[in-house]
Input
Amino acid sequence: MRYLLDTNICVYFLNQNAKIVDKIASLHTEDIAISCFNLTELLYGAYNSDYVDKNLERVRFIENTIEVVTFDRKAIENYAVIKSKL
Output
């Protein structure tokens, strides 16, 4: 099974939440991914924090360790349409 982590899970992982760290550690790195949107949110959070360098380093660790999934134009359009109806 593959897991696409959301931004909150990534933040919990970066903040060393034991339950999340244990779960992610139990998985193979090829079974975990984040979306390009999650990476954008994590980078935004790092740049908007009081500890920019430290937090950027932590985000880069995730970026360099697991796959970052990108989306094509059709997927982006579908996302926007679906979200606008929620």
The first strand starts at residue 3 and ends at 5.
